[in-house]
């Protein structure tokens, strides 16, 4: 693997193995470039104290904590205890969750903290294997596949979602407004490349344009157009980094009539042209997390 790929993946993923020590230690993962990361901490033996946004939770062996990008946390690990920490950037998290309709509920799950106190043995074994695969892939310079690392973390999230009971609770339904916003999000993921108008989204949701606008602005403090624009810009940034396609090809794939229209749209909502962003992304230390982020936490 070439050097640029190796450096890039370590900007977007991390792993730490915490082996037994003779003294207590405290880790504070959300620092520096890791501030915009989602993390999983797995206590494999012993005891620890998790402090997540001011809430303290005593962890025992085989306990797992998931902290979203927006969350803050620290872990005080007792002497003789072991565990490991996995993390991915917000950018990679959005990428691995994908844009299919099936990923909507998993995306919602990824935006809130989850704590599992010693789930069943079968799940722990499965989780351990996935986590070990993530660690091995990331730590081996001859491997370090971004796709593999994203796949491992995606499967980890899916497992946490299922065992936490979120899958069942999602199936039971939620409030009318939240359901409508989830449906809107679902439709955006499917149709944003087709450049649907807000009127088309409203019609598909069986509500008026004004009602959709009112619900979005009242609940999310953003208009429907802003939410769609953010999704388009994120996808454009993702493709500018990940693909070698020309600006013309990217414009076509994202539903724009030509490269000029796409470039004007991109600059209007991101502050730079597609070409300038592509040059900048080759130097990840110069790119702020804000310039990469898409506000998934704004959605229900």
From TrEMBL:
Domain of life per record: Bacteria
InterPro entries with a match to the protein in the record: Homeodomain-like_sf (IPR009057), HTH_AraC (IPR018060), Tscrpt_reg_AraC-type_HTH (IPR020449)
Coiled coil stretches, renumbered: none
Pfam families: HTH_18
Keyword Transcription regulation applies: yes
SUPFAM superfamilies cross-referenced by the UniProt entry: Homeodomain-like
Signal peptide from the UniProt entry: none
HTH araC/xylS-type domain segment(s): 182-280
Alphabetical list of PROSITE patterns matching this protein: HTH_ARAC_FAMILY_2
Keyword entries, A-Z: DNA-binding, Transcription, Transcription regulation
Molecular functions per Gene Ontology: DNA-binding transcription factor activity; sequence-specific DNA binding
PANTHER family, per database record: ARAC-FAMILY TRANSCRIPTIONAL REGULATOR, TRANSCRIPTIONAL REGULATORY PROTEIN
Protein name: AraC-like DNA-binding protein
């Amino acid at each position: 693997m070439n050097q640029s790929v190796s450096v890039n993946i370590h900007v977007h993923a991390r792993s730490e193995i915490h082996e037994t020590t003779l003294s207590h230690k405290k880790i504070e993962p959300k620092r520096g470039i890791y501030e915009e990361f989602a993390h999983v901490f797995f206590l494999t033996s012993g005891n620890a104290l998790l402090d997540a946004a001011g809430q303290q939770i005593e962890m025992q062996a085989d306990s797992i904590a998931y902290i979203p990008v927006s969350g803050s946390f620290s872990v005080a690990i007792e002497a003789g205890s072991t565990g490991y920490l996995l993390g991915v950037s917000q950018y990679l998290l959005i990428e691995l969750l994908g844009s299919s309709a099936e990923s909507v509920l998993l995306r919602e799950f990824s935006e809130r903290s989850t704590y599992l106190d010693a789930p069943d043995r079968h799940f722990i074994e499965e989780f351990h294997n996935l986590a070990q695969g993530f660690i091995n892939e990331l730590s081996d310079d001859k491997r370090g596949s971004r796709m593999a690392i994203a796949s491992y973390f995606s499967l980890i999230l899916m497992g946490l979602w299922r065992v936490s009971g979120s899958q069942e609770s999602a199936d039971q339904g939620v409030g009318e407004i939240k359901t409508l916003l989830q449906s809107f999000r679902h439709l955006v993921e499917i149709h944003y490349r087709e450049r649907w108008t807000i009127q088309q989204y409203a019609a598909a949701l069986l509500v008026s344009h004004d009602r959709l606008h009112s619900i979005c602005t009242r609940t999310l403090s953003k208009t429907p157009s802003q939410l769609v624009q953010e999704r388009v810009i994120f996808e454009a940034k993702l493709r500018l980094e990940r693909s070698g396609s020309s600006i013309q090809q990217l414009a076509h794939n994202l539903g724009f009539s030509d490269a000029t229209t796409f470039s004007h749209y991109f600059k209007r909502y991101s502050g730079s042209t597609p070409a300038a962003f592509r040059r900048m992304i080759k130097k990840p230390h110069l790119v702020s997390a804000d310039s990469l982020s898409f506000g998934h936490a704004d959605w229900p």
